[in-house]
Design brief:
The chain has 4 helices and 9 strands, in the order ββββααβββαββα. With 158 residues, the protein is of the alpha/beta class. It is globular and about 50 Å long.
Length: 158
């Protein structure tokens, strides 16, 4: 990559090591002017630096879903609605989906946290919570799906 004279160094984003994903106000449909969220282009980078660190499993799963959404041709942003973060707002052509990612949903408090940010979004686009759980917690039009099944489902969204 040739650098312009006004630019003397290559960033990690220029080197395709990471992605900076903007945050978007879902209700107001505008980009927010504060720090983007960082996702790694290759999970091996995280493993090389931190080793097999299960403490960060939620971040690891979010990173995997982000890369998969890109692979499927979606433009991805981080959503914000009524002060709550939505992990992903993914768009492709006229399709849009809101996605929350969780490692597990062991109790009602976690279920409330994961589903409430999607319930606050008042549009008719699909909403989904992904976790490694094998039981279905779908409610109020929000689909709960096993994350591995999501990754293997090449026909999604149908």
């Amino acid at each position: 990559m040739a650098l312009s004279p006004s630019r003397s160094k290559v960033t990690a984003q220029d080197a395709c090591l990471l992605y900076l994903v903007p945050r978007e106000d879902v209700q107001g449909k505008r980009l927010l002017q504060f720090q983007e969220k960082i996702f790694l282009a290759d999970h091996g980078i995280r493993e090389a630096i931190y080793g097999h660190n299960q403490r960060d499993i939620n971040q690891i799963l979010e990173n995997i879903v982000y890369i998969e959404l890109l692979r499927r041709g979606y433009t991805v942003r981080i959503g914000k609605s009524n002060g709550k973060e939505i992990d992903f707002v993914a768009e492709k052509a006229s399709q849009k989906i809101h996605i929350q990612v969780a490692y597990l949903i062991p109790d009602q408090a976690v279920a409330e946290r994961e589903f409430s940010s999607l319930l606050a979004v008042r549009d008719n686009f699909p909403k989904m919570v992904l976790s490694l759980d094998r039981f279905d917690l779908s409610r109020e039009g929000i689909i709960h799906k096993n994350l591995i099944d999501f990754l293997l489902d090449q026909d999604w969204p149908a």
